Amino acid sequence: MARVLVAATGGVAAIKVPHLLRLLRAAGHEVRVLATPRALEFVTPLSLAVAAGGEVATEEAWFRPDGRALHIELARFADVVLVAPATADALAKAALGLADDLLSATLLAGAKRVAWAPAMNQAMWLAPQTQAHVERLKALGHAVFGPAYGPLAAVGEGEGWGRMLEPEELVERLHAFLTPKDLQGLRLLVSAGPTREYLDPVRFLSNPSSGRMGYAVAEAARDRGAEVVLVTGPTCLPDPWGVEVVRVESALEMRDRLRERYPWAQGVVMAAAVADYRPAEVLAEKEPKVEAERTLRLVPNPDILKELGQEKGDKVLVGFAMETGEGLERAKGKLWRKNLDLIVLNWVNREGVGFGSPENEVVLLLKDGRILELPRMSKRQVADRILDFVKEFWQA
Ligand code: PMT
């Protein structure tokens, strides 16, 4: 976890800063907050102080009678400065190396890492001056999160590029910014979610996969610098930023999309719960209900992972196994039959893990015979452990 200085400049999005501070603290970061005089026209010092759990650094407090200079202290404190919301003026000053206020002086006084969350009118954001300043800051190693497209604050401006990203996304982006890029250069294909096998236009066979496990793998890989394509069955999860998302419904569609991307990929993590069967016949019209028993004829779907394993080459292949009872032996069988480097065994019948839950409890079985039983942890933590092995095999 990091020591984060959140610096709010003048914009209506400053009202979201207390929420941002709370989220950062809940994620385990140590936070301090700086607010410019204009920011304090939108949000009160008291709400910032309460959310930050400490006093607000303001222009008045810059130089102290005891000789302390706040810009030096803050620059030393922060592992990262997140300027949110960031005005065009703040971006320009930092790009030019001006230092005539507390924020710009803090940034010039050796702030280690800097991230910006711009918020302004679209015309100001797209102005060549602002864009040139943004490029300059990126060249200095600063990160720029957003802005997003949406309704703009000033009356009559409609929609445009210029909204600050929501605090939840800023926390995610900051986490990614601070994560070491040990998978830089890896092209990873990830599958997630269930498939739907339609009987007619309104009825289908499926399973309770929420997509959380596969999305966690995609997000963790992205944060570690990999280029990620996520092929996902229907889920309620939002598309992860920074990942190319391909949405599919049936197993046959998932197979086609995965095979299209397979030559590109250096690694595949197959977390999708693919239906093993589909109805032999799909009706074009909704079949009316009849008061009688009926039998459904099913045909097997292709085993996608097995097919990919047959053309493995030097790619890294990771599968999952969803088991009950004699899971270990069955998972080992799948590891060999599907020609995998690693299989992740998880259980269908344990409370609070597997389908739908935020946590998982898994056993990793590696092709060299290693078996690692992991304690219950978040799916994101499981994803990182899987990716540690993807990295090992990729670099071997
Ligand atoms: O999505 P969540 O709610 O987060 O839940 C996560 C999960 C429980 C779905 C996930 O962790 C998981 O276990 N996914 C794989 C479930 C599964 O299909 O297991 P399996 O033992 O039937 O299949 C073995 C492997 O072959 C899997 O990698 C599967 O993706 C793949 N497979 C299976 C059938 C098929 N026709 N084609 C395949 O490629």
What does this structure look like?
This protein is of the alpha/beta class and 396 residues long. The chain has helices spanning 17-26, 45-52, 70-77, 88-96, 102-108, 122-126, 128-139, 167-178, 212-223, 251-261, 304-310, 327-337, 379-395, and strands at 3-8, 30-35, 56-57, 80-86, 114-118, 143-144, 148-151, 159-163, 187-192, 197-200, 203-205, 227-232, 244-247, 267-270, 277-279, 298-300, 316-323, 342-347, 359-360, 363-366, 371-373, 377-378. An eight-stranded mixed beta sheet has the order 13-12-9-14-17-18-20-21, sandwiched between helices. The protein has a six-stranded parallel beta sheet with strand order 3-2-1-4-5-6, sandwiched between helices. Helix 1 packs across helix 8 and helix 4 (88-96) packs across helix 7 (128-139). The protein is elongated and about 80 Å long. Bound molecules: ligand PMT. Residues 193, 209-213, 251, 270-274, 276, 301, 303-305, 319-322, 334, 346, 354-356 line the site of ligand PMT.
Topology of this structure?
Layout: E1 3-8, H1 17-26, E2 30-35, H2 45-52, E3 56-57, H3 70-77, E4 80-86, H4 88-96, H5 102-108, E5 114-118, H6 122-126, H7 128-139, E6 143-144, E7 148-151, E8 159-163, H8 167-178, E9 187-192, E10 197-200, E11 203-205, H9 212-223, E12 227-232, E13 244-247, H10 251-261, E14 267-270, E15 277-279, E16 298-300, H11 304-310, E17 316-323, H12 327-337, E18 342-347, E19 359-360, E20 363-366, E21 371-373, E22 377-378, H13 379-395
Parallel strand pairs: 1-2, 1-4, 2-3, 4-5, 5-6, 9-12, 9-14, 12-13, 14-17, 17-18
Antiparallel strand pairs: 7-8, 10-11, 15-16, 18-20, 19-22, 20-21
Bound molecules: ligand PMT.
